[in-house]
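Appendix B.2, paired examples.
Example (i):
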Amino acid sequence: MLSGVESMTTIVLVGVASFLVVLAIIVKARAAKPKKPEKWEKALIVKRLLALSEREDIVNGISRQQPVSQSPTPRRRAAAASTSSSRTVRPA
């Protein structure tokens, strides 16, 4: 059987171990939640993404003046060429 000092030491060690387990669970639970960005952080992220997109467009040769959905495709170029030749204006 354990003496009085040994049983007190065991109780203290079990208490410390229990405290550390509970503390580890709390820290892990808090770390799992993603932090919501502030408004200024969101604005900074959007600004950076827009700058990256513009750089990528410049590298790829896409102009920001023209929406991507209306960029001239080969079919549209052919249609534009066929209509432009029939619309020649004759001087009066």
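Example (ii):
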Amino acid sequence: MENNVKETGKIKAVALDFDGVITNLDIDWNTAIRRASQIAGYDVKSLLTFYEKCFGTPIFQTVSSEMEKIESEASNKAQVQPALKEFLQKISEKKIDAYVVSMQSRSVVEGFLNQHGLAGFFKGVITRERCPSKKGQVACVIKESGKNAKQVLFIDDSKGNINVCKELDVACFHFHRNQNPNVSKKEWNKVLTLIDGEVRQSRLGWLRSGSAT
């Protein structure tokens, strides 16, 4: 997989995933899916598929509210990804807008950002209540930022999300989900290097996805 900033698009907006990039939520997604299945009355195979299929319906709201309880408990124990704040400060100095794109609930994401003093770095937060797919969320960033797609950088720890969002013609970076300060700092430095245009392409091995399945 290649992480690259295209020659024709100087990055002017960055869309960051929440779980796996901004923080790491310790959630047993198998248990969460079983709970969603109990509420829905049928076997939910994937929360992501469920959200997209049932968006705008009462059952979506019921399941989403129950998942919010699980996410909130996990976020209260979670820590900020090492070196994230320094990264956000640097892109802010470069006048690059930052957005959160997350399949978690808005309350959970905004609560975490406020708790850790990060809210001021972000121009917008797009969550499942507004848009039930990662591709749709990144599309919203393109529209709201007023930037060309090639000027938007999407950062996610999920191979699937990266592949889908590449279809929007945005630049993508596959982030190494971790809580190791040294590894995390190297990841953020790679992103800054790509943004600065010093290296147009870098190859990383695939790492496990921590997003809801």
